[in-house]
Amino acid sequence: MAITIPEPGQVAFVRLLTKSRFKVGWECPAKLFYCGRKAEYYNKQLDDDFLQGLAEGGYQVGELARWMLCNDPANDIISTRDGDAALRETARRLQQPDVSVAEAAFRHENLFVRADIVVKKGKFLSLYEVKSKSWDPETDSLWTDRGGRRMRSEWAPYLLDVAFQKHVVEKACPGSTVKAFLVFLDKTKLATVDGLAWKFPVARAGNNIVVNSTVKTKEELGGDLLCCLDADRDIAELRALRDFDLPRGGKGALADLIKELAEIYTSGERCFCGVGAKCRGCEFCFPSDPQLATELRQAGLKSGLDECWGKAVGPGYDPGKPKVIELWNFRQADDAVGQGFFMIEGLPEGFLPADGKNAGRQQLQVSKVKQRDDTPWLDYAGLQAAMASWTFPLHFIDFETSRLALPVRKGERPYSQVAFQFSHHTVDRGGRVTHAGQWIEVVAGKFPSFDFVRALKQNLEKDDGTIFRYAAHENTVLRDIADQLAASSEPDRHELCKWIGTITEYSSEADGKKGKIQGHRNMVDMKNLVVAHHYDPFTHGSNSLKMLLPAIIRQSGWLQQKYNQPISASGATSLNFPGDWVWLKSGGAGGWKDPYKALPPIFEDSEALSRYVAGLTEVDDGGGAIIAYGKLQFVDLPDCERDRIRAALLRYCEMDTLAMVMLYQYWRSELDSH
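Above: the chain's sequence. Below: its structure in token form.
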């Protein structure tokens, strides 16, 4: 195997196509222009590797893989982040006939990769790409034959990632035989030791991130939880395809795509490649909050998405007008764009389906846009009928949870549910709002979910009042914990499982027929009520509670009057805020600040996290809480910072259930005045 050790300073790292940049370019070549100009274009994605790794469990999975796959896990890693030095150190180590290298660096022309793990035996190189994702060897597949042979969308980024790396390593190491593997956590395997999740704490070390592993021997880790998927045949199939959309037009092979993306990124070329449904997930777009978007523009930042759409639409493009990708649950966006209909107001009559479960909602949104009507729509009769079935006191609950990549307890699978916090508000028949309870467990190394359920049961079993959740998250969490309890030896497991069954719903199959079983006190999903009975144009088609809250505040004089005063004077109570705290303060879009934006951030020193949380649009956006929990579990923190994060988590979760209360109060006040 021929590999040359570069001289110091020989390698110039100006603009090289890395595996992360390749992924960005494959998603949309236009992004390569924006991602190379961080000071110019707004990017709502979390770009702090440390926080992202905590959220996804990547550090723990990577370290586990190193212990399982490397010859010398304690010493094999190349820790320098300097590309030049990493290339030279990789080349030096690979002079040995039998060696393993973690974070190995390879370069070919304008391509550069850092491979998670490379194991060399003679002329054979095994390339392992480790992913913090789970895989079921019995049911999962990288490919689908529906509509022709193609990569499954959920697995395509991983297969392309390892294919790109194999391409670079083969070019950088001529004469070698490179085998490529995707490494996942195996869904079918159970942990054989307790506390695996907490064996790999992480910390910052200057500009680097280090895992301060407590592991001394491989035996401490128990049975192997990894699945090493041989990707060579899949990569060969991928290389044989010639239907990749090339940035400069036409179709080509994977090698052609890599070549063009590298040339585009290295040269700084701008590549517009059309717009459509793919733009929904673009990170280079301003938030839908008009005030925040204005502030970003005033700060000198640009929206890459608006520049792409401006190019596609041409003269007269107005970034403030709703695009077809903002139409709720609209699956014909690409068809609309292909026919020249870029904006909702331009959709012709008859383009939307006349019936179906989404039709009414979509047609309502289109009608509001075309009529320039920004008033909310409420189905008064439907809301009134729903409310007539509710029993006081009303209970509003919200959970903060995480799925830790590595199992917490012996006998558990990867990514098991961990519930570490809830908040609970009540509203009585007279309208009094009480922050009735909360619970949080942030002690590092302590499994919280069973105590979580015990505390929740104590909060809710005092009466038969109706319980509310927003979206499916709370139901899913409780069903997961019920399964964990059933498999445990907890003395009260039967009692807790039975109680969970009274407030949840789940699918069941009896006599060959599928059906849904609902507990007698099954939680009411407020999101379903919004979809069926409430639409506000201010939400831009989103049903997220965090989008809906500023919309209803903007509309409701009742809410403005009640919450634009200290808590002590409003008739409500709080477990985390002082009596002089005011929930609604003047300013912002519609004349009022979003209550969430008035809260102190969980991490005051993290601008990246603030952007990450602000960029999320779905109701269960606990990204900030997940990262906070990861930091409390896996990072050595001083007590003062630990206490500050805990207090911030309590405030955030209280705001979540108060937002649900405000939505109920908005509906009630509108019905009373109708």
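The longest strand covers residues 124-135.
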